[in-house]
């Protein structure tokens, strides 16, 4: 049986500045004929070149990851996780939108200087021999039959949120809160008429503060007030829904929990971005206003004070 994931060699086909904070890199390669799109917020690994070595020591084959981990630090290519903004299988191209952070990490350094023709490697799922072989864990957005959705995230989650918005059914109802560094960083995106999209510019404010305030206001109006269809003033759950909400030390543990799709889900919340902010929002939605924890998917993409770019 073929490996579910593989290393895809690609080259930079275009570098497109979108806003002061966002850069789109288009990657192209014949190997992408075997790449499999598995979800709207699909994550892949970028394998970044090592100066002077490129990808000369990068293992290939079905057991590439084990071989990669065994490499010495000096020759082990850095891996970073990003979201596929769009994939065009006929053109064998995919886009990745980077939130530019300057010279703060290997991915930021790479995107700040990459040029058309530069080599890159990505790791993602390959087209399976049967649907049963599709890998789990590469995409998380799964609202099922929810009557209303909430999407919230900072600039690191903006590409995933935009990809989700553009693929939603036209009948979808919900609210979206996207925090970005400045007013100039709002991205063009198409959403169903029933989905309100709010771009929240920090403009010097603390990270997550303004988005948190707006999500709290949404929760008070829509969930606590019972205006979400079927919410019943608390998602039909009540205060006990958060009684078993385990605490997560975001400085030591990965903040990541994705509920299984259930038939009864009046509200579905998808929250991603800085782990401390995501943790607070989840606590408020579950313990504060009574959403069932099975209605909240949350992903800590990065942690303030820790280099992940």
Description of the structure:
This protein has 309 residues and is α/β, with parallel strands linked by helices. It is 17% helix and 27% strand. The strands form two sheets. The protein has a seven-stranded antiparallel β-sheet with strand order 4-3-7-1-2-6-5. It is globular. Residues 229-240 and 249-253 have low confidence and may be disordered.
Number of helical segments?
A: 5
Mean of all residue-level pLDDT scores: 85
Q: Shape, please?
A: globular
Order of strands across the biggest sheet?
4-3-7-1-2-6-5
Low-confidence stretches: 229-240, 249-253
Biggest sheet statistics: 7 strands, antiparallel
What's the total number of strands?
Answer: 13
| Derived structural class | alpha/beta
Distance between the termini: 34 Å
Q: In sequence order, what are the helices and strands, one letter per element?
A: EEEHEEEHEEHEEHEEHE
Helix fraction bin: 10-25%
Radius of gyration: 20 Å
